[in-house]
Amino acid sequence: MQQGEKLQRYGGGNREQLHFGATIAGRHQAPYRPSHSHDFDVDFGEVLYPTELVQQGRFHGDEWVHDPTIRGWIQADSPGRVAVECADLLVAVGPEAWFIGTDRRIAVVADAAIAGKPGQESALEAGNSEESAKGFGRLFGKARSAMNAVAELSESLIGGTELVTLWECPREHLGEMTGSLKGRSTDGSGFSVNRFADGSVIEVSTKIHVKGFM
Q: In the β-sheet with 189-196, what is the strand arrangement from edge to edge?
């Protein structure tokens, strides 16, 4: 973490809510499947699939949020967009991928043991992956002592001493980064809505920042 950087939302560690839906170049996909594979040590055993209604696109508005297997949704006019790049890693690492939003960036992080490649880094953090990993480790350490809700984090992440950043995007490269309550329930479900400069959007289920948290 950079000095003064603040956690705003985070999400991950849910072994059921793994899939993304997508509308890419006008084509509906649920679940979304990346066009290329990644080599991560992740157990995808007994994975549940979205309901037929979501798979077939037979829903209105944001009703897809009520499917317990759906983690988020991607919108893009072509597969080569930033939102798709982010989703590819979230899908590839599944329950071990954590989506982090701060006041300065969004990122996909995972325990180094899951990545299987210590020192793996994104182009944006080349030469500084160790510091970035320790930074996010400090973030979660501080978060755990600040709020009981963080006890829901996966055991692998809580116990991990080293995290790797698989992907990140500085806030200045985002057209919009907001939190939103979606769905038809009275409470709604928390989502991080991220619109990139190329027009693509990724919505990810997260715990939205609570006043007084960090």
A: 27-29, 19-24, 70-76, 201-205, 189-196, 174-182
| Sequence-separated (6 or more) residues with CB below 8 Å from residue 99 | 10, 11, 12, 90, 106, 107, 108, 192, 204, 206
How many residues appear in the chain?
Answer: 214
Q: Does the model's pTM come out above 0.70?
A: yes
Q: Nearest to residue 202, comparing CAs of 11, 13, 67?
A: 11
188 CB-contact burial (10 Å; exposed 0-12 / middle 13-18 / buried 19+): middle
Around Cβ 78, how many Cβ atoms within 10 Å?
11
- Tens of pLDDT, residues 128-164: 334 444 444 444 443 333 333 333 333 334 444 477 8
* Beta bridge partners of residue 196, listed in sequence order: 174
State how far the Cα of 70 lies from the Cα of 104, in Å rounded to an integer.
Answer: 26
